[in-house]
Amino acid sequence: MSFPTIEVVYRPGTEAFLANPKDTSLVKPGFDILSQQKGQLQKYFGLQHEDKTSAYVVVAWEDLEDHKRLMNDAETYPRLGAAVSKFFDVKAPQNMVHVRPTSDPFKAFEAPVTEIAYFTPKAGTSKDAAEQLIDTLAKAMNAAGSADGVVHAAWGPVVEKENVLALFIGWTTVDAHYKAITTNTTLAGLIGQLKDAFDFELSHVEFSAAP
């Protein structure tokens, strides 16, 4: 079974977006253009919990080539760029990656808060070992379930960054995340292994579905 390619893009939000990051009127013009594109599936938007300034958009595509086709469209892509200026500070640098998840990721983005983490293997950690460890963590998160505040976890490789793995975890709250990885002994043990095997970065975003 194949799963969609997930585009994750973020850059500083506009003043209007930072003032009201759930205002669907800000994203609707851009999302309407996206909805017209071949292979475009679901869309989510939100504000990063940690810095309170980064606007995030997640777009699911049937295939990476569908997004590349849009980016190469000399008429539509500039229109999209103008439309997203309502919520993205388009003068600031953009960060964008594509992830190929190994399972259905959507429940993670539909949770009250979503952890987005990127793992880069340290020297001595093989590709197979890295993937096995992240897969084990994702399965352990899903097994922990609602008792530990987990809604859903999914992972996959990052297309643009060789050997980097992405993990999406839906949580009931940010506090639930940090409580779970200290009080659940299985998760705590796996987190210890992760710290030995990877350099990693993570953030949390409260996503809303496309209007």
UniProtKB/TrEMBL annotation:
Name of the molecule in the record: ABM domain-containing protein
Annotated organism of origin: Trametes pubescens (White-rot fungus)
Biological classification of the source: Eukaryota, Fungi, Dikarya, Basidiomycota, Agaricomycotina
